[in-house]
Amino acid sequence: MSTASPGPPIMPAVKPARRRWPYLLAGVVLLLATPFAYYALLQFRTQNDWRAAEAETDALDPRWRMEQILADLAPIPDDENIALATIRILAPGRTNISIPPKRYEVLFPDDYPVNAEMNPEQIKFLRESFKRIGNRLDDARELRKYTRGRFKLAISEDFFSTQIPDHQEVRILAEWLIHDARLVAQDDEMDKALQSCESCLALGCAFCDDPYVMAFLIQCAMHSDAVTAFERVLAQGEAADAVLLRVQKRVLTEYRTTSWLAAMRGDRAGHHLFFEGVRAGRQKLGGWIFFRINNENLLVDIKQWGADTFPAVYLRQYPDHLRYNTALVEITKLPYHERKGKLAAHQDSLYASTNAVMRTFAIAGAIVHAAEGRTRGLLLSAAVAIACERYRLQHPQRTWPSTLEEVVKKGLLDEVPRDPIDNQPLRFRTTKEGIVVYSIGPDGNDDGGKIERNNTNRPGVDVGFRLWNVNLRRQRALPAPAELEVPN
Fold first, then answer.
1. What angle do CA 142, 143, 149 make, to 5 degrees?
2. Structure confidence by residue, pLDDT tens digits, 299-357
3. Over the stretch 90-139, which tens digit does the pLDDT of each residue have?
4. What is the rounded distance in angstroms from the CA atom of residue 276 to the CA atom of residue 278?
5. For the chain, does the N or the C end have fewer beta carbons within 10 angstroms?
6. Are the C-beta atoms of residues 156 and 207 closer than 8 Å to each other?
7. For residues 447 and 440, is the Cβ–Cβ distance under 8 A?
8. CB atoms within 10 A of CB 76
9. Hey, which residues does 429 pair with through a beta bridge?
């Protein structure tokens, strides 16, 4: 029996090698494309959110962009523009600082009594300082005739570097006028002294619709300087009732024409102008959002490069910043006494936010709000105190009113005004020296009319205006410090 021989062994089929490089290539392409796809998606979402934030702002406050704000400003004839008048007065010499500060600080200490005459050294010092001004001081005294004004404001493309040199020089004219009022009151020309105070007050109307927070703060300084000058002049003697009536009306006008809202709207518009420039590639973001502490900081350089190269990473945060600023403007539109709680909550939302744009560029709303409160309280107190002085002049016994209601009954006020801080009747107190009319100030506490003219920012003081009994006005001057102690 034969047996068949087995055939060759059957070999298993060999599968062809799988080509893996296409998958690797696809993975690499996907890996490289993902950041670009994410960046494109980020830009798309940013664009949509940006438009939504703009539409929300349009609905609440039409014509809020910078070009619209500037276009809406009413024209002012040149001959009615106090801003142009100040430029003309200062033009003969751009170096106009008239009073050497070191010597001044020694001769006029903060605690020098307001109701004391100036001593001979103070008088000599001011007269010598004014010699360099010449007849320009006469022109400055006439600024009280103006009721409106506006400086030409060349808004820079990035907004933040906008220059306001003419705005700042207004402080020089205020310096001239408040010290001129001192000298003229020293000469017992009270009505003329009040005219210089009025002109200082009028300087504030150059900023009434200026869309810039710094302009608003300069306006506050002008108003504060003027009220301080009024208080000193009335601490030196008595003025005519007709002059006091004119001053009272002007102070109330300035009280009602604060530029707080214009400043807030302007800063929001300026921020938008800047970020529109970043989005269009006209502005660089890195230098504004990451600040160099020293000249060699590699980490800051990298962050700035990243912000400038990939701005969409930060631009996506801008719509919420616009919403934050719009909410601030809406709070600004409220009466002062209704703002405090809303501002606090608004500020808390900033502290809780991780939005780098908001935290870097947030407008200091609470600080500016407090400045407005101090200024409005000061102006209102001054106007009411002047009405009380007029009451005393018209009273047969030359006595002060016991309440502000008596001033209203006399027809010297339309009503007892409300303190802008808490909407309660403005405070009034008689003292052993005279009277004080006051607002409780931004700290919200009634401190009994405690006035510290050089420390109005700190808690524990009120904001107001003091008037002295006639027998306590124009007291003997304090002696000047020794000549060797007074620097040149």
1. 150
2. 767 777 777 777 788 889 899 999 999 999 999 999 998 998 899 899 888 888 888 88
3. 886 545 555 666 778 888 888 899 999 999 999 998 998 888 887 888 99
4. 5
5. N
6. no
7. yes
8. 16
9. 436
> Are the C-beta atoms of 307 and 345 separated by less than 8 Å?
no
Phi and psi for 111 in degrees, rounded to 5? -95, 15
Q: Residue 184 pLDDT > 90, yes or no?
A: yes
Tell me the backbone φ, ψ of residue 352, rounded to 5 degrees.
-85, -10
Q: Is the pLDDT of residue 1 over 50?
A: no
CB atoms within 10 A of CB 461: 20
- Identity of the highest mean pLDDT range in 2-6, 176-180, 293-297, 449-453: 176-180
Asked if 118 contacts 125 with a C-beta cutoff of 8 angstroms, the reply is no
Residue type, 4: A
CA distance 245 to 185: 18
Query: From CA 319, how far away is CA 322, in angstroms rounded?
Result: 5
Q: Which residues sit opposite 428 in a β-bridge?
A: 437
Which positions ≥6 away from 34 have C-beta within 8 Å? none
